[in-house]
């Protein structure tokens, strides 16, 4: 994942085809101040990010939030990602809960059957899970 010896790569979320890598990279840069390039972004759901962590560690690379660490950010906030954040091996994950997806889908369906034309795309609001808010997010993300 690391492209240059003096800077780390980023493992990012798998947010589908509409994922904006430049916006994501900017958010990580502003949050962590790392000197990274957007070309260093890879996308992973939390389980795959966990695999990337294991592969990096097996290769002798350091993962974490340090300037020269490989910074891993997962997506979908499942158990592997929560455990990796607790251990300091994953910087963050994104809340993506089936219950919230179901509620949003039900709302859109209800509006449709009431005669309202649905938007072409409806996005589920996202929240970042980090060590700072892990206590609040760990339980809902542990499905």
Description of the molecule:
With 143 residues, the chain is an alpha/beta fold. It has a domain at 10-96 and 126-131. It has helices at residues 21-32, 46-58, 79-86, 98-113, 134-137, and strands at 10-13, 41-44, 71-72, 93-94, 128-129. The chain has a 3-stranded parallel β-sheet. Strand 1 (10-13), helix 1 and strand 2 form a beta-alpha-beta unit. Helix 2 crosses helix 3 (79-86). The chain is elongated and about 60 Å long. It starts with 9 loop residues before the first strand and ends in a 6-residue tail after the last helix. Residues 1-17 and 35-41 have low confidence and may be disordered.
List keywords for this structure.
143 residues; alpha/beta; 10% strand
Instruction: State the assembly state of the protein chains.
Output: single chain
The main sheet comes to:
3 strands, parallel
End-to-end Cα distance: 28 Å
If you compute it from the alpha carbons, what radius of gyration comes out, rounded to the nearest whole angstrom? 17 Å
Which residues sit in consecutive blocks of at least 5 with pLDDT less than 50?
Answer: 1-17, 35-41
List the strand order in the largest sheet: 2-1-3
- Shape descriptor: elongated
Helix content: 25-40%
- Helix/strand/pairing category: alpha/beta
Spell out the blueprint of helices and strands.
Blueprint: E1 10-13, H1 21-32, E2 41-44, H2 46-58, E3 71-72, H3 79-86, E4 93-94, H4 98-113, E5 128-129, H5 134-137
Helix pairs in contact: 2-3
What is the gist of this entry?
Helices cover 37% and strands 10% of the residues. With 143 residues, it is an alpha/beta fold.
């Amino acid at each position: 994942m690391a492209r240059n010896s003096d800077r780390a790569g980023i493992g990012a979320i798998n947010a589908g085809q509409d994922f904006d890598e430049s916006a994501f990279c900017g958010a990580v840069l502003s949050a962590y101040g790392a000197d990274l390039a957007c070309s260093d972004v890879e996308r992973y759901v939390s389980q795959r990010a966990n695999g990337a962590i294991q592969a990096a560690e097996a290769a002798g690379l350091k993962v974490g939030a340090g300037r020269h660490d490989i910074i891993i950010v997962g997506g979908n906030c499942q158990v592997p990602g929560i455990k990796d954040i607790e251990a300091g091996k994953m910087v963050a994950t994104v809340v993506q809960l089936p219950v919230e997806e179901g509620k949003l889908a039900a709302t859109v369906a209800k509006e449709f059957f009431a005669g309202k034309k649905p938007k072409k795309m409806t996005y589920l609001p996202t929240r970042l899970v980090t060590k700072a808010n892990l206590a609040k997010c760990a339980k809902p993300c542990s499905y």
